[in-house]
Design a protein that fits this description.
single chain; alpha+beta; Phosphorylase Kinase, domain 1; D-amino Acid Aminotransferase, Chain A, domain 1; 2 domains; seven-stranded antiparallel beta sheet; five-stranded antiparallel beta sheet; 6 helices; 14 strands; globular; binds thymidine-5'-phosphate; binds aspartic acid
Length: 237
């Protein structure tokens, strides 16, 4: 499958059209940003790690019955995916308070939530991705109630699937952000990526951060953390 025109360049990926109108090629970059693009940098090797780790997770999720956009990994950095219209929501699931939740509710980072927490943010850089609730989403037409019910169900299921895989590698899934897409026939599928850019991963024994917070918070050892996730999750797969 050959790339034709570039459809979109985001902060971490480029998306290309292909000769097949129903398929795209995603190309993962080493560029890293935080705080809505205010902080910029490069994480050497990130594109390849995120591509491979995300595809690995999505394959398992697909095997458990949740449809995803992944068709085929084409190379270290590139994956063939189903073409979708992205539902303009960042769907966040949290098991442990960290980041913006800890700040918003005055919780100490590391507080275990008694039940997984689901949040939605409207994907809009100009507005800084504001948090929205179900009635905003329906009133604004971002998704229908039926779509949102399915997205919520899938998101909690994905949390359980990922927690299970990661536990075996001594990684605690603190929280993560996912995005969904709508195919031409209206089917909702998991899109975007699941990687150290979009999840908080803590070492289960030492609580060491093994994700993009090392970049966001200038903790050092950023590349090593991404490598560690690749090694633990994929081993020699
Ligand atoms: P937050 O605590 O900053 O709201 O982040 C929650 C989760 O979402 C965390 O795993 C990091 C991820 N995330 C993204 O993937 N993209 C973003 O733009 C932000 C702000 C967070
Ligand atoms: N999406 C954020 C940014 O725009 C990055 C992040 O905090 O993950 O820069």
């Amino acid at each position: 499958m050959n790339k034709t025109e570039m459809l979109y360049e985001g902060k971490a990926k480029k998306v290309w059209a292909t000769e097949d109108e129903n398929l795209c090629i995603v190309s993962y970059k080493d560029d890293a940003t935080a705080f809505n693009g205010l902080k910029k940098g490069t994480i050497v090797g990130k594109g390849s790690i995120n591509n491979r780790v995300s595809n690995y997770f999505m394959k398992i999720i697909e095997d458990k019955g949740i449809p995803t956009h992944v068709v085929e990994e084409l190379s270290d950095r590139e994956t063939l995916v189903k073409r979708v219209e992205i539902v303009p929501l960042e769907v966040i699931v949290r098991n442990i308070a960290a980041g913006s939740l800890a700040k918003r509710l005055g919780l100490e980072e590391g507080t275990v939530m008694s039940h997984p927490v689901l949040e939605f943010c409207y994907k809009n850089d100009a507005l800084n991705d504001p948090m929205v609730n179900t009635s905003h989403i329906i009133a604004m037409g971002f998704a229908t109630r039926e779509e949102l019910d399915l997205i919520s169900k899938y998101s909690f299921q994905i949390n359980e699937i990922l927690k299970g895989i990661l536990e075996m590698d001594n990684i605690t899934l603190v929280d993560f952000k996912i995005e969904f897409g709508r195919m031409k026939d209206g089917t909702i599928i998991l899109a975007d990526e699941i990687s150290p850019d979009t999840c908080r991963f803590w070492d289960s024994r030492t609580s060491e951060k093994l994700d993009k917070d090392r970049f966001r918070r200038d903790l050092g050892g950023v590349e090593d953390a991404y490598q560690e996730i690749l090694k633990r999750v994929m081993g020699n797969k």
